[in-house]
Each structure stands twice: as C-alpha cells, then as structure tokens.
C-alpha cells in the first residue's frame, strides 16, 4: 500500500512538473501531502508536506479543531506552549514538517498544508489571482489507556504481567520485549498478558515491555531493578614492575551505574589523577590504571564500587606485581638447565677421552678412527637410553 502511495505521488510529481513546464510562472503543486494519523495522548505526531513551483512556493500550516464553532487558524513555530515545531526548507522545492509533542485531546482535528507562490499571497486587501492550494490530514488523539503492571517472584521464577483495565480498540495479540529483543508473541485478544522468566531478579534486571497489538499500539513497561551486580574483569591481575597496571570492573545490570569509585585495601579512596592513578569510567565500565607499578606500594586488593538509584555493589581485584627479573625466571631456568646438561656431557666426554686416545694411538688408520666414532655414537645412544 505504501509503495502504491509512493507510485501515485511520483505520478503526481510528474504531472505537476509537466503542468509547471507548460504553465510557467505562478503555478504551484503538491508532490507530497500530509497523511492522517491516530495517536495516543502524550505521544507526538509529525506531518510532512512538499510543494513545487516557480518561484518556489511558501508553505503554511493551518488547523481546525473538532468543536463546531472552530475555524481555521494558522499554526506557527512555538505555538501551543512550544509543543509545535515547524521546520521548512526552500531549496528547489518547498518542504515543511510540522511536529507536535506531548499530544492532548485538543490537538485532534484537521491539519491543512497550504502552498502558494503568488507575490500578493499575504496581502490583506488584494485578493490573489492564484489562490493558496490546500492539502488536509486528520489527526485523532485518543486518551492513553491505563495498563496495570506487576512483577512477582515465586519459586525461582519471575512473573511479569500487564493488565489493560479499560476497553480499547480490538486487541489482535501481544508481544513482550526486552530492548530490541522479542521475547514472546501471541495472537490472543485477552486484556491481560504474562511473561515468565526462570531465575532471580539479579540475573534478569532490565526494562521489559508488554505491547498490545492495537491501533494505535499501546505499551506497558516493567523495570526489574537491582543494585549494581559488579563483576571484576579478572579477579586477580598480574603486572610487571615499572609497567602500567590495568584493573577493570563492569556492571551488566539495570539500572545503570551513576557513579563509580575505587578503594585501596578496602578503605583508602583513590582519587583520579592523584599519584600514579588514572580512573576512566564510562557507563557500565570502570578502569583503574596504575602507572609505573611498584612491588611494595601497589601489590594488594583493590575495590571497585558502583552506585545506582537502587544502591551499591562492589567487587575486589587482587593485584600482584612481579619484579622485572621474575619475568625472566622461566627463561633463566631453561638456560641453567641447558648449562647443567652441557657440563655433564662435557665432563662425561672428558672422562671417556683417555681410552679413545689409546685406541687412536694403537692404529692411527682411517677405518679405526671411524670405529672410534661409532663407539662414541654407541655411548651417546646408551646414555640416552639411560
Ligand atoms: C467554542 O465553543 C466552546 C464552548 O462550546 C468555547 O469554550 C470555545 O472557546 C469556543 N471557541 C471559539 C474559537 O470560539
Ligand atoms: C529541518 O529539516 C532539515 C532538512 O530536512 C534537517 O536537516 C534538519 O535537521 C531539521 N531540523 C530540525 C530542528 O528538525
Ligand atoms: C505533557 O502534558 C501534560 C499535560 O497535558 C503535562 O502534565 C506533562 O508534564 C507534559 N509532558 C512533557 C514531557 O512536557
Ligand atoms: C485486571 O484488572 C481488573 C480491574 O482492576 C481486574 O478485575 C482483573 O482481575 C485483572 N486481571 C488480572 C489477570 O490481573
Ligand atoms: C524504567 O526505567 C526507565 C529508565 O531508567 C525509566 O525512564 C522509566 O520511567 C522506568 N519505568 C517504570 C515503569 O518505572
Ligand atoms: C552496558 O553493558 C552492556 C552489556 O553488558 C552493553 O551491551 C551496553 O552497551 C553497555 N552500555 C553502556 C552505556 O555502556
Ligand atoms: C580522570 O582524569 C583523566 C585525565 O586527568 C580524565 O581523562 C578522566 O576522564 C578522569 N576520570 C574520571 C572518572 O573523572
């Protein structure tokens, strides 16, 4: 249907362009007209209008309420206690968007987009040769119905329920959402709907929505709020003397953290920028950086603490600082092992040497020499076997 509407609009635009090309100056046409809409109180609505002409036409918005005695009155940017915003552009075509925030029942009525490029269009006494062209849309503002929400926790389960307590338009189904994720959907017409989660509040904190498939759509919100469930990225961190130590804590729970703080050995508060400390906190994550790690001063327990509107949560990170040499220990160990082996082999070979020298002295011919090498190889093999 939308594609059809676009097609019709495109055709309209072509027709208008054709008319303009033929008629020349003074003609105006709409290439996009505002569309009628249904909204709930406190919602907002946006109407769009686009016109074409030479010279570029001016666009105005007019409103007529549903009271029988009401007549059209012009709307301007900032009208209705600043709830009305009009954004117009005059660049090749004229476009205008009227945006009305926080709707009330009194905003229901007919909204008219008027366009004209007649030089005398706003003259009070002269009647313009070319009148304003008009395009209308209706906005229906419906009282937002009340949805009662409830969160129960029983037998290791969380039960979220929504109850629409007033009669509203036809209900074609329900949907439960957590953020953008659809959790459950049905096509029942009941006024109440429930969603169950296995587990505890701490594991499933967040903002959940029950959506009734009505026209317009209505929604209820249930927040599962808990104190911050802080977790350390790593419970124990290792750093080398002189390097920068990085300790990280996160909070995946709802509501988000408002303030993060770090403590040394359970109580000494760490001030950002003081000494060798730098704290970086962003939303649900905090990072404590300790520059030029020192074995005596920095080894110990660090506490990250998070506060949200429900309370406080914390986690401990243990930091161990190794000496620069410590990092070399495994390597030095291997070197020492190799040295010992080489020494043993060397001594062993030294001990064997006298026999071999004797052998050599006996013959001194090439085949014997090769014999000796074979002998040596055998020794090595035997040693390996041992
Ligand atoms: C229309 O009539 C109602 C009462 O019926 C009155 O409150 C309102 O002010 C009138 N509006 C105008 C524009 O005269
Ligand atoms: C007004 O409309 C222009 C063009 O559509 C857009 O770039 C701009 O962000 C709008 N301004 C406001 C305040 O909505
Ligand atoms: C919306 O309007 C109602 C009264 O009509 C008012 O109480 C409320 O504060 C307004 N909300 C906003 C966000 O302006
Ligand atoms: C929904 O609310 C109505 C009116 O308060 C009540 O009579 C009904 O029992 C509720 N339904 C559920 C499923 O809680
Ligand atoms: C749920 O939490 C959000 C974000 O903190 C808040 O804007 C909203 O008012 C809360 N809703 C309810 C029903 O408490
Ligand atoms: C908070 O953490 C969640 C995942 O744990 C992530 O998806 C989300 O983007 C984070 N929010 C902010 C504001 O950093
Ligand atoms: C700590 O200070 C650094 C720079 O001195 C700054 O970039 C950072 O945002 C600060 N952190 C907090 C949590 O204020």
Automatic annotation (TrEMBL):
Residues 43-131, 145-225, 228-318 form the Ig-like domain. GO terms for biological process: axon guidance; dendrite self-avoidance; homophilic cell adhesion via plasma membrane adhesion molecules. GO terms for molecular function: cell-cell adhesion mediator activity. The chain crosses the membrane at residues 327-348. Keywords: Cell membrane, Disulfide bond, Endoplasmic reticulum, Glycoprotein, Immunoglobulin domain, Membrane, Receptor, Signal, Transmembrane, Transmembrane helix. Its main location: membrane. One of its GO terms (cellular component) is axon. Residues 356-386 are annotated as: Disordered. It is found in: Basolateral cell membrane; Endoplasmic reticulum membrane. Gene3D superfamilies: Immunoglobulins. It is a single-pass type I membrane protein. SMART domains: IG, IGc2. Residues 1-26 form the signal peptide. Coiled coil: none annotated. InterPro entries: Ig-like_dom, Ig-like_dom_sf, Ig-like_fold, Ig_I-set, Ig_sub, Ig_sub2. Pfam families: I-set (PF07679), Ig_3 (PF13927). This is Basigin.
